[in-house]
C-alpha cells in the first residue's frame, strides 16, 4: 500500500512517499520511512502525529494514500522572541 510520511523541522521539510504492508500502523509506517534516523530529535513519546491534519494514535491502522504527519513541538526561545511592549 502506498502512503506518505511528512515532517518539518525549523530548516527543512521532508515528505516521503513509500510502500508499506497492508495493515501497517502509523508507528510501523514512520519506522519504515527512516524519518527517525534522519531526524533523531523526533520523540514519538512526546510529539503528536496525525493523518491529513487530524491527530491520531501510533497504533492506528494506515489506509492507502494516507499522509502521516509528525508534528514537532512548538516552543519559543525567550531570547529570540521580540517583546511586544517595547
UniProtKB/TrEMBL annotation:
Stored InterPro entries: Mopterin_synth/thiamin_S_b, RnfH, RnfH_sf
SUPFAM superfamilies, per database record: MoaD/ThiS
The protein's name in its UniProt record: UPF0125 protein CODIS_20720
Gene field: rnfH_3
Superkingdom, natural source: Bacteria
UniProt similarity note: Belongs to the UPF0125 (RnfH) family.
Amino acid at each position: 500500500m502506498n502512503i506518505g510520511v511528512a515532517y518539518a523541522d525549523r530548516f527543512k521539510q521532508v515528505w516521503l512517499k513509500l510502500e508499506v504492508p497492508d495493515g501497517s500502523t502509523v508507528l510501523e509506517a514512520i519506522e519504515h520511512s527512516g524519518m527517525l534516523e534522519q531526524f533523531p530529535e523526533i520523540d514519538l513519546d512526546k510529539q503528536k502525529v496525525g493523518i491529513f491534519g487530524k491527530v491520531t494514535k501510533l497504533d492506528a491502522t494506515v489506509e492507502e494514500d494516507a499522509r502521516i504527519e509528525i508534528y514537532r513541538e512548538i516552543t519559543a526561545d525567550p531570547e529570540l522572541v521580540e517583546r511586544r511592549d517595547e
